[in-house]
Amino acid sequence: MTKALRRYFNTLRSNEKHIKNVENYLYGTMQNLFGVWWNKQAAREYVAKHPEEEKSADNDNSGLYY
């Protein structure tokens, strides 16, 4: 949360004036922060409930690009 707020305030202090509504920008920043947090938490819970799928995904490299 600290990093997200720091990025928010740094953006406001910068010389770029592309932010028209500061409150909406803060809302979007917090929405993105909690969206990322929620997805990470949901992924951890899913892996904990479905450990067999994680092992099969480790052996399947078809979706990875090197």
Describe the structure in your own words.
Helices cover 74% and strands 0% of the residues. With 66 residues, it is mainly α. Helix 1 (2-13) runs antiparallel to helix 2 (22-49). It starts with a helix and ends in a 7-residue tail after the last helix. The mean pLDDT is 79.
Descriptive tags:
66 residues
Mean pLDDT comes to 79
Shape, per Cα inertia axes: rod-shaped
The helix count comes to: 3
Ends distance: 33 Å
The beta-strand count equals 0
Q: Class by helix and strand content?
A: mainly alpha
Order of helices and strands: HHH
* Structural Rg: 18 Å
The proportion of strand residues reads: under 5%
**Low-confidence sequence ranges:** none
Report helical residue fraction: over 70%
Q: Biggest sheet: strands, sense, closure? A: none
Question: What is shown here, in short?
Answer:
The protein has 66 residues and is an all-alpha fold.
Task: Break the fold down into its secondary structure elements and pairings.
Layout: H1 2-13, H2 22-49, H3 51-59
Helix pairs in contact: 1-2
